Automatic annotation (TrEMBL):
The protein's Enzyme Commission number: 2.7.7.7
Coiled-coil intervals: none
Organism the protein comes from: Nocardioides bruguierae
Top EC category: transferase
Gene that encodes it: dinB
Protein name: DNA polymerase IV
Pfam families linked: IMS, IMS_C, IMS_HHH_1
Keywords on record: Cytoplasm, DNA damage, DNA repair, DNA replication, DNA-binding, DNA-directed DNA polymerase, Magnesium, Metal-binding, Mutator protein, Nucleotidyltransferase, Transferase
Annotated binding of Mg(2+), by residue: 11, 105
DNA sequence: TCTGGGGTCCTAGGACCC
DNA sequence: TCTGGGGTCCTAGGACCC
């Protein structure tokens, strides 16, 4: 918590719906609902006109239609939303270099990093007011709500207090007074499950929460969650505004209007999703070691399976093969297998454990292995390395190791090892001499293993 | 025919290593 | 002969957020 109200939170009002109304004048002043329009769709954003009929985010589109049949129901145009978001973030960066986007329509701005004469309430209020007008100007009329406070938590609470098109400042020193009468659900991280647990413990307001000892919160909610709630209930929040966070996973999933029951169709879906995920990985210059699938059964139970490769991949074939293998593993399972054939409503593929490794880093640190070291490496090393994959190259031979090299074509591949000393003992790693190849060393079926 | 899609973070248990 | 504890990695699931 800072001495000044120098954390700004900006939230675009009914963002997706507002973009639609901006771009299509006939929708202005009318209820607009953006979201899935299929049989299993949900509402992403409802315009304020639609909210008057009780339409809310995350509500099923079916219910939204029954509440407000005359609304315009639209699927999202994410290209337009991304463009508007880009304009907003650029406007925010004109004020301060420290801008942390939370999503397309929300961001924190650290005014302490801005070029201002001081951080007094009047000064930052003026900045915030001009910023809202600048955002409207940059986006051709989108309105936003802004909160200013001494921490991220309070700034976000504040931006919610006067929606839409509002500006609320929490003067330093008044934070706890503002929070105490509020419901615990204003605290980020308190969703339905946590709120219910707290309610059973007699806690419904922040003031109630403040009276619960730390040990009790930890035993109720776990170490991390209990600890953070104990702090936030007292308005204690020192989280910095952090621009540019690295993505940790990439995934694609889809819910189908009617359940899938043919495993071959599911495999085809996973293959296509794997290609989408791999394409997005490549576009962002990233690759990841853990491939996961997600399966939601007809009764809404959700199961996931994952497998971790010894080196990162962004290869659509590798991701697809592993995804299908994970599905096959599920289908063979005694419990899930039966249900799988009973119908699957959602399928998804993800890659996590992202590392946007740079080839130079790998090969520059490489040293020629000692002869006896090479002899002493019967097991596949637990490698953390890989290299970009070039189609059109094949592999006939791998020295010093067991694994698969993905490719198609002809050639000879040499796997190089190095052993480095670390405080934890020797660390083995490997790489390929050809930087355009990739070695993969997970468990491979014997009859499928070219090196067995 | 209730219940999206894209993420993040946490927990808990088991394997494995020192 | 019996008994260890800590750290890291991996997996599965759950809660939460926009």
């Amino acid at each position: 918590m800072r001495a000044h109200a120098s954390v700004l939170h900006l939230d675009l009002d009914a963002f997706f719906a507002s973009v639609e109304q901006r771009d299509k004048p006939s929708l202005r002043g009318k209820p607009v609902v953006v979201g899935g329009v299929g049989g299993r769709g949900v509402v992403a954003t409802a315009s304020y006109e639609a909210r008057r009929y009780g339409v809310r985010s995350a509500m099923s589109t079916r219910e939204a239609r029954s509440r407000c049949p005359h609304a315009a129901f639209l699927t999202g145009r994410f290209g337009a939303y991304r463009e508007a978001s880009r304009q907003v973030m650029a406007a925010l960066r004109e004020v301060s270099p420290l801008v942390e986007p939370l999503s397309l329509d929300e961001a924190f701005v650290d005014l302490a990093a801005a070029d201002l004469p001081d951080l007094e309430v009047d000064t930052v209020t003026g900045v915030a007011d001009r910023l809202r007008h600048r955002v409207a100007e940059a986006t051709d009329g989108l309105t936003s709500s802004v909160g200013l406070a001494s921490s991220k938590f309070l700034a976000k609470v504040a931006s919610d207090l006067d929606k839409p098109d509002g500006l609320v400042v929490v003067p330093p020193g008044t934070e706890t007074e503002l929070l105490r009468p509020m419901a615990v659900t204003v605290i980020p991280g308190v969703g339905p499950a946590t709120a219910e647990r707290l309610r059973r413990a007699g806690v419904t307001t922040v003031a109630d929460l403040e009276r619960v000892p730390l040990e009790e919160l930890v035993s109720l909610l776990g170490k991390a969650h209990g600890g953070s709630l104990h702090l936030l209930a007292r308005a204690r929040d020192d989280r910095p505004v952090v621009p540019e966070r690295e993505a940790k996973s990439v995934s694609v999933e889809a819910t189908y209007d009617s359940d899938l029951s043919d495993v071959r169709v599911m495999e085809a879906v996973l293959t296509r999703q794997a290609a989408d995920v791999a394409r997005r990985l490549r576009e962002s210059g990233a690759s990841g070691r853990t491939v996961s699938i997600k399966v939601r059964l007809h009764d809404f139970t959700t199961v996931s399976r994952s497998s971790t490769l010894s080196s990162p991949t962004d290869d659509p074939g590798v991701v697809a093969r592993l995804a299908r293998a994970l599905l096959a593993e599920l289908a063979a399972g005694p419990d899930v297998g039966v249900q799988l054939r009973g119908g699957v409503r959602l399928l998804g593929v993800g890659v996590s454990g992202l590392a946007d490794w740079v080839q130079e880093d790998l090969f520059s640190s490489l040293e020629e292995p000692e002869d006896d070291e090479a002899e002493d490496l019967p097991e596949p090393p637990r490698a953390r390395q890989g290299s970009a994959f070039a189609p059109g190259v094949d592999v006939e031979h791998v020295e010093h190791g067991r694994g698969w090299v993905w490719g198609a074509g002809r050639g000879v591949v040499t796997v190089r090892f190095e052993t480095r000393e670390s405080p934890a003992g020797p660390v083995r790693s490997f790489s390929l001499e050809d930087p355009d190849l990739r070695l993969w060393t997970p468990e491979v079926p014997e009859d499928d293993d070219p090196l067995a």
